Amino acid sequence: MTDVQFSIPARERDGHGRRHSRRLRREGQVPAVLYGDGKPANPLSLEARVLRKLLADERVFTNVITLEFPDRKETALIRDLQMHPYKEEVLHVDFLRVHAGERVTLHVPIHFENEATCVGVKSGGVLHRALVEVVVEAPVGQLPEAIVVDIAQLQVGESIHLSQIPVPAGVKLVPLSHDDDKEVVSVHSARTGAEADEETAESAPVTGE
């Protein structure tokens, strides 16, 4: 959790549908919705320029954001982003209302430490990242920005699973609650080029004479 406070101006919107959303985007706005806390979904819009600046900091995805309406403020987490298929353009944002002390679940990135000094990699092994993110449960305000995995001592043939990762107090790795101790990272022995060529030859289809 960072000490940085994230906020963005927001305004209510009455229109719905694709035509209305396209008009908003032409005007430099991004349609969004705020839901949760047992309240009706609240359609809103954000200034695209300000939203781009906000999203440039990856910490915003695991921290509370204050939506500043003209008459009130709401605290929320980004729940989903809809992106343009080939442009760096946000088409829609889903926000989830949250309050201090409330426990929430969120996808959090996994960051690997000491890759350059990993024992297994230095001895010729190949690093395999089985997971790049994991679902966590934690109180609002205590959500980790990332789950850090130290792989300095990982040897060839070894792996690290979720149950072996230390997490901050109050944070739970959700898969472990379902007895799903996923592999996070491992180091495999590197095959030589000759071995790879031999395997390819053996698996090639046999053609008729």
UniProtKB/TrEMBL annotation:
InterPro entries, sorted: Rbsml_bL25/Gln-tRNA_synth_N (IPR020056), Ribosomal_bL25/Gln-tRNA_synth (IPR011035), Ribosomal_bL25_b-dom (IPR020057), Ribosomal_bL25_C (IPR037121), Ribosomal_bL25_long (IPR001021), Ribosomal_L25_dom (IPR029751), Ribosomal_uL5_bac-type (IPR020930)
Record-level Gene Ontology MF annotations: 5S rRNA binding; structural constituent of ribosome
SUPFAM superfamilies, sorted: Ribosomal protein L25-like
Nucleotide-binding listed as a keyword: no
Signal peptide range in chain numbering: none
Protein origin, superkingdom: Bacteria
Domain Large ribosomal subunit protein bL25 L25, residue spans: 10-95
Residue stretches making up the Large ribosomal subunit protein bL25 beta domain: 104-190
GO cellular component: cytosolic large ribosomal subunit
Region annotated Disordered, chain positions: 1-23, 187-209
Keyword field: Ribonucleoprotein, Ribosomal protein, RNA-binding, rRNA-binding
UniProt feature coiled coil, ranges: none
Pfam family, one: Ribosomal_TL5_C
Any one GO biological process: translation
UniProt family annotation: Belongs to the bacterial ribosomal protein bL25 family. CTC subfamily.
Function: This is one of the proteins that binds to the 5S RNA in the ribosome where it forms part of the central protuberance.
Family matches, as NCBIfam families: bL25_bact_ctc, PRK05618.1-2, PRK05618.1-5, PRK05943.1
Quaternary structure and interacting proteins, as annotated: Part of the 50S ribosomal subunit; part of the 5S rRNA/L5/L18/L25 subcomplex. Contacts the 5S rRNA. Binds to the 5S rRNA independently of L5 and L18.
Protein name: Large ribosomal subunit protein bL25
